[in-house]
Specification:
single chain, 430 residues, alpha/beta, Rossmann fold, OB fold (Dihydrolipoamide Acetyltransferase, E2P), 3 domains, 13 helices, 19 strands, 33% helix, 23% strand, binds iron/sulfur cluster
Length: 430
């Protein structure tokens, strides 16, 4: 009888690429995949610990797995598993906890997926994490997340990622190119480069992120690349200029700012100030007029006064950007910020977060309206929502169009004629 396996992923694109890679091994070993929540023989949870809420969601997912697949073998891996292995092992129903170094070694540790009396933990100290495990997502979406880098050596005082994913490391250009060719052979047209600090690609080797970008640009079959997120101090002029010349690297950057107050950036131990950040944004806008700029910002960092917050607000308002990813500060155990004074109340964090979301909505609307009447190349995705399908332009405008199976995974010339009430672009195929 074919065994059934389900997966549930929390967190970032990197986690999705890794779950998808683990899933391919299960399929290759004859398992059939079912949706999380359906009864399965094995349930694999890939967890996240970037915020307190993420930890809570992981524990809830374990309970759901136990409830919906009472006899299933439950394996928990990912960042929360690396951070709190023993705690997770005590949760009833869990059979194995795999730390970061063991994430891809489930079959090496588990012969038969019979439930265990007590959960077993396979993990190691984060400082012992050495290897770079390649990964990419497939089958789940039209676009593939390709892991190019892992871990981080930066000292950001609010961040727990280095303590669970380990030091910065990456594959070689040749290895990533092999993966990208494999993705092309599977028929994907767009790749999103993902990692923890991808601009740090090649650290400790003679290869650089720019080398990787140039090599990927030459691959046949992949027509579009997006850089998922890159630190402001690592966006070099040559990367920006290359994006202008390349037909494949899209006019879309996602850049973490975190605060628009130099005082708070110092407390966060970020590697730039607002002057450098502004110069990068202006340089990109100067060279790439239709660029989509998504910016990460944290509200409520310890010590953030009303004045600091207003500095952040006015700084962001003054920038020509397209969208804000607003995060509420979440204290992480063991981070330097945990011991910092000047705690901001939950009520105040909420107020500040709402103000930045409103600012983001205004910027996003202005950005979309700029392109009414213009033509773009849209890659349509496979998912059907009621009678609609969706796709993205090069500069990350979300397009809604009546569902047509023949358009799935196709790049078509599209003229934007308006923005609908849901905030999606509409238009005509040319
Ligand atoms: S750059 Fe900073 S925020 Fe990003 S993963 Fe590294 S330590 Fe965390």
């Amino acid at each position: 009888m074919q065994k059934k396996v389900s997966f549930h992923t929390l967190g970032c694109k990197l986690n999705f690429s890794e779950t998808s890679t683990i899933a391919r091994e299960f399929t290759a070993k004859g398992f059939s995949r079912v949706n999380f929540g359906e009864d399965a023989d094995v349930v694999v949870l890939n967890t996240c610990t970037v915020t307190g809420t993420a930890d809570k969601k992981c524990r809830q997912a374990i309970k759901k797995a136990k409830k919906t697949s009472p006899n299933a073998f439950i394996a928990v891996t990912g960042c929360y598993a690396q951070a709190e292995a023993d705690k997770i092992a005590e949760i009833p129903g869990v059979d194995v906890v795999l730390g970061m170094n063991e994430k891809f070694n489930l079959f090496q540790h588990i012969e038969n997926f019979k439930k265990k009396e007590h959960a077993v933990v396979y993990s190691c100290e984060t400082s012992d994490i050495e290897n770079f495990d390649a990964a990419f997502s497939s089958g789940d979406r039209t676009r593939s997340f390709l892991k190019v880098q892992d871990g981080c050596d930066y000292p950001c005082t609010y961040c727990t990622i280095p303590s669970v994913r380990g030091k910065s490391r990456s594959g070689t250009v040749a290895e990533i190119i092999r993966q990208a060719n494999e993705i092309a052979e599977k028929g994907f047209k767009e790749i999103i480069l993902t990692g923890v600090n991808i601009g740090d690609f090649g650290k400790g080797t003679d290869e650089t992120f720019f080398d990787l970008v140039k090599a990927l640009d030459k691959i046949n079959g992949i027509e579009r690349y997006r850089i998922s997120s890159i630190e402001p101090n690592l966006i070099t002029d040559e990367i920006i200029e290359f994006t202008v010349k390349s037909n494949k690297f899209l006019p879309h950057f996602h850049i973490p700012l975190q605060s628009g107050s130099d005082k708070i950036l110092k407390l966060m131990k970020r590697r730039y100030n607002t002057e450098l950040f502004r110069s990068k944004i202006e340089r990109i806008n100067e060279l790439i007029s239709d660029v989509f700029l998504g910016i990460d910002v944290i509200v409520g960092f310890p010590g953030e006064t009303d004045v600091d917050f207003m500095n952040t607000y006015q700084f962001l308002e003054s920038l020509n950007i397209s969208f804000l990813h607003v995060f509420s500060y979440s204290v992480r155990p063991g981070t330097p910020a945990e011991m910092m004074s000047g705690k901001v109340s939950a009520k105040e964090i909420k107020r500040r977060s709402n103000l930045l979301h409103q600012l983001s909505d205004r910027k996003h609307k202005v950005f979309y309206e700029r392109f009414i009447g213009t033509e773009h190349k849209v890659l349509f995705e496979g998912a059907k929502h009621q009678n609609s399908m969706f796709g993205f332009t090069e500069n990350y405008i979300k397009v809604e169009f009546p569902y047509n199976e023949n358009l799935v995974n196709k790049i078509v010339d599209f003229q934007i004629t308006g923005i609908n009430e849901k905030g999606h672009a509409e238009g005509l195929i040319k």
